[in-house]
Design brief:
2 copies of one chain form a homodimer. The first copy, chain A, has about 130 residues and is mostly helical. Chain A has 2 domains: about 60 residues, Multidrug-efflux Transporter Regulator, Chain: A, Domain 2 (Orthogonal Bundle); about 60 residues. In chain A, about 75% of the residues lie in helices and about 10% in strands. Chain A contains 5 helices and 3 strands, in the order βααββααα. In chain A, strands 1-3-2 form a 3-stranded antiparallel sheet. In chain A, strand 2 and strand 3 form a beta hairpin. In chain A, helix 1 packs across helix 2. Chains A and B meet through helix 3, helix 4 and helix 5 of A and helix 3, helix 4 and helix 5 of B. Chain A binds a DNA duplex (30 and 30 nucleotides) through helix 2.
Chain lengths: ~130, ~130
DNA sequence: ATTGACGTTTACGTAAACGTCAATATACTG
DNA sequence: CAGTATATTGACGTTTACGTAAACGTCAAT
């Protein structure tokens, strides 16, 4: 595995545009090094980008993704105040994830119902075809 | 439980504005009856609205929510073509939900890690306080 | 008769999350 | 050394999902 990555390498790997990556940096989600003017992403930057995309798949706004990313760092250094704040944020995120999980379960069940109805109707149509 | 609902009743119940509800109607997510010009929502409209909000919590765009809502109806009536199309759409949604579920599990684990680190640091700080 | 609570449509405003140029620099490549 | 590829920073455009008035109708209660 490489040590560093260019912006277009990461774009290709994750199927996003370089514009998007620069936008994430602008929004403080990423903070790559520079060689001259060029961005140089290390492995940790790449992981952060992965986390951004995971957050996106869960429908989180970038602002919220940023606070989660910040929690990763905040766990290491910081004062008591900060650490306790982070703990509360962790709880909030957990609550939200649990809600999303329930929503997924419910949606899955609904999909099952829909599919069963569809398959039943399909086989009834095909059955009629055979009868006719 | 009431038979019908006004727009503001539903807004209050679900904590959204009437503007949002009208917007959902405009985007074909809802189709309430009218008494004169006034919208009259029945129980099924209310359930559709619930489904809309569930979709929103999962981060789906309204357009996608609409196709899911359409699947609920498409299961009942329609021709073979339509039914098979719906089945494929069901599969797509299932795949996406499974991805989201994986993302939630991963996020949960990350939150655990973060919290443990935080609690460890907190107790170490408080411990130092006692020692000092 | 008017006030207040609710409803309507029309229309412009806005924040988020990029897309899409344009102009420019830098690097390697034949 | 010209050409091609890749990078940069603006800056304006676009889509989604509403917010926010404005201007008006309706109906019950004071």
């Amino acid at each position: 595995m490489q040590e560093t990555f260019t912006i277009s390498e990461l774009g290709k790997e994750f199927g996003i545009t370089t514009r998007a990556i620069r936008f994430y940096e602008d929004k403080q989600l990423l903070n790559p090094d520079r060689e001259g003017k060029k961005r140089v992403f290390n492995r940790s930057d790449r992981i952060r980008l992965k986390l951004v995309l995971r957050g996106k798949r869960l429908g989180w706004p970038l602002e919220e993704i940023r606070t989660v990313l910040d929690m990763y760092d905040a766990g290491h250094q910081g004062e008591l105040q900060q650490l306790e704040y982070t703990c509360r944020k962790v709880e909030e995120s957990r609550t939200q994830l649990e809600q999303q999980k329930r929503d997924i379960e419910a949606s899955m069940q609904d999909l099952d119902t829909i599919e069963k109805r569809c398959l039943a109707r399909i086989s009834s149509i095909k059955g009629d075809e055979n009868v006719a």
